[in-house]
Uracil-DNA glycosylase
Amino acid sequence: MTASDVRIGDSWKQPLSAEFDSPYMAALRSFLLREKEQGKRIFPRGAEYFRALDLTPLDGVKVVILGQDPYHGEGQAHGLCFSVRPGVRIPPSLVNIYKEIESDLGIPPARHGFLEHWARQGVLLLNSVLTVEMGRAASHQGQGWERFTDAVIRTVNESDQPVVFMLWGAYAQRKAAFVDQNRHLVLRAPHPSPLSAHAGFLGCRHFSKANAFLESKGRQAIDWRLPERPE
């Protein structure tokens, strides 16, 4: 699996070329091929494994939101954490994200869960693990994706532009623990899952804080209002 083999924004190819050429990525590719040969259904589809990097170029990253692994239900995952395809029921964690945006910014909740509008503005919606077997949550953990996405986070951390990292839940906070807080804004809160959202995610005001930081650094704020119809 090389950078030339996959759909990935050009700005990412050179910084991540060593990862794509590494033995662990070759092993990961072999694992995925074996899974498919055994008739297992893998989400998202192959063209969307790197959708987050394809939509959000490195030099355009303003905000990083970290998820864990893709949704494993039929028709949900399409390569962006917390996002689902148009027409798919909005997942509970995203419902709580919308609630917080409404409380923080006065933006009514969207009627869909398709977040590409955010990604195109510079919100890197990155899962730690980029694939999953249908119906089996966390089934592709420990196969190499975590190492790759660590490299993505390091690459953003080393970029010249100041970035906001929204780290929701202990998993995301551990994964990005090395981010330079002298150059970037690191916002931490519990995960927006219904199990933990009321323990501090709701009321965290991360969205207004992110925009205030970006504007203070001369960067354009994110328009968190999603279009009525998915783009």
Notes: The chain has a mean pLDDT of 96. The radius of gyration is 17 Å. Residues 10-217 form a domain with the Uracil-DNA Glycosylase, subunit E fold (CATH 3.40.470.10). The beta strands are 42-43, 63-67, 123-127, 132-133, 164-168, 185-189.
